[in-house]
Design goal:
alpha/beta, 60s Ribosomal Protein L30, Chain: A, Alpha/beta knot, 2 domains, 10 helices, 11 strands, disordered C terminus
Length: 299
């Protein structure tokens, strides 16, 4: 659901009016406020879905909230004084001054402690994980998180460098998913992939030049733990990553456009992976044949 259309305030014309008001006199003050550095480890999260998920996450520490009367009603926050942190009723322009005029905050913003990334040892018995190889755009990473949670991915693995830090932009793109997925940070991706192999994960890198269709690759490893590895748009997987994963697979696209945004490709890949996992879990029918699929990779 696209929550940008949730209130009249978020319309195109409303955003233009806000920008016009700032150009007439409030712009410098708002720009200063939105660019003011926050204390280390504190992030501003905004948007109805984002804040609702943060409020419901026991692992999230919230320090304060700014909220409009309309947003409080939509979030069913009837008594702000009952919240375990300070919450202030404000006009939308007060939140604009903190988030910047382009942020679609929908009338609510919280300042919260950033979530702490977990080590690889926190994977536990996860069966399906995503690995990102230097995907740096926070909009893409947020959208990937949203798809990952929708398809039941238990963890998202990124590198400590060349990955976006938690931010309002990333959290808004994730639409609440940031609070529902285990975030794991590693220093060296190739070493982490080898650790996944030791944990009996089959690692499959998504690559437009992959020798096998993704459907065939995941069918070959039915019943195994799976780590899907995706690279940044343009450059794709790094050479070391390509050499380390157990297989390279492609999404077949018969149309004139042969590539997708990385977040869209992730959603399709997860649908394929989840569909094959569910099919493998079902007892085969009496008529079903089970030929071996010759994916000549080092599983």
């Amino acid at each position: 659901m696209n929550d940008r259309t949730g209130t009249p305030k978020d319309s195109h014309h409303a955003r233009l009016r806000r920008a016009h008001r700032q150009r007439k006199g409030g712009g410098a003050r708002a720009e200063h406020a939105s660019n003011a550095p926050l204390p280390e480890g504190i992030v501003r999260l905004y948007g109805l879905h984002t804040v609702r998920a943060a409020l419901d996450n026991p692992a999230r520490t919230i320090h304060r909230m700014s909220i409009t009367r309309n947003a409080a009603r939509r979030l069913e926050l009837d008594d702000l004084s009952a919240l375990p942190f300070p919450a202030e009723l404000v006009e939308p322009r007060a939140i604009d001054a903190l988030t910047g005029p382009e942020a679609v905050h929908q009338g609510v913003m919280v300042e919260a402690q950033a979530l702490s990334p977990r080590p690889l040892s926190a994977l536990g018995d996860a069966a399906l994980v995503l690995v990102l190889d230097q995907v740096t755009d926070p909009h893409n990473v947020g959208a990937i998180m949203r798809s990952a949670v929708a398809f039941g991915v238990e963890a998202l693995i990124t590198t400590a460098r060349h990955s976006p830090a938690e931010s309002g932009v990333l959290a808004k793109a994730a639409s609440g998913a940031l609070e529902h997925i285990e975030l794991i940070t590693v220093r060296n991706l190739a070493d982490a992939l080898e650790e996944l192999h030791a944990l009996d994960f089959a690692t499959v890198g998504l690559d437009s030049e992959g020798a096998h269709r993704l459907e065939d690759a995941v069918a070959q490893i039915a019943g195994r733990r799976l780590a899907l590895v995706l690279g940044a748009e343009g450059k794709g997987l790094r050479q070391k990553t390509r050499q380390t994963v157990r297989a390279l697979a492609r999404l077949d696209m018969p149309g004139a456009i042969r590539s997708l945004n990385v977040s869209n490709a992730t959603a399709i890949a997860l649908y394929i992976a989840r569909s094959h996992a569910e099919a493998a879990a079902r007892p085969p029918s009496r008529e079903a044949a089970n030929p071996a699929i010759g994916v000549d990779q080092k599983y």
